[in-house]
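Today's session is about reading a structure prediction critically. Students often jump straight to the picture, but the first step is always the sequence itself: look for stretches that repeat, for charged clusters, for runs of hydrophobic residues. Only then move on to the predicted structure, which in these notes is written as discrete structure tokens rather than atom positions. Here is the chain we will use throughout the hour.
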Amino acid sequence: MIKAILACDSQGGISRNGVMPWPHNKADLKHFQSLTKNHIVVMGRKTWEAPDMPSPLPNRTNIVVTRNTDFQTNGADVICDNIFEQLTSLAKNSTVCIIGGAVLFEQLIDIIDVLHLSRITGHYDCDTFLPMAKISEQFDILDRVVIDNMTQFETHIGR
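Below is the predicted structure for this chain, in token form.
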């Protein structure tokens, strides 16, 4: 199974200057950990290199996707080509979790089965956004849980 686990503000924003712009959100981080622990997490190079990203994420198999064939890193496998084929193959025996960024999510949206989207209330002057219209077209909301006045978790299933 291929899942995407993402968080965005009220306008679909996911980052500003390469980092999550909202205050530390303990509920969202706990939710993220519960969804990804002991699974494969897949991220773009910019997400891997983000200053607020612990790299590698512990208790997970980390995979970085990049076009740079010379890119090397400690703690993660690197995929530079045949992304769809490799991730689809991995998903036959494991849960694959796409965790960012926006470009990678858009590239892989057609092979994502389930989208877990944390909605962080507020506008945080983001400069990177999820394609919310495309998400609405390709996914149905399966479940919505309001955690507190700042956070709600949505589970979307692909059509």
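Discussion point for the tutorial: The chain has a mean pLDDT of 95.
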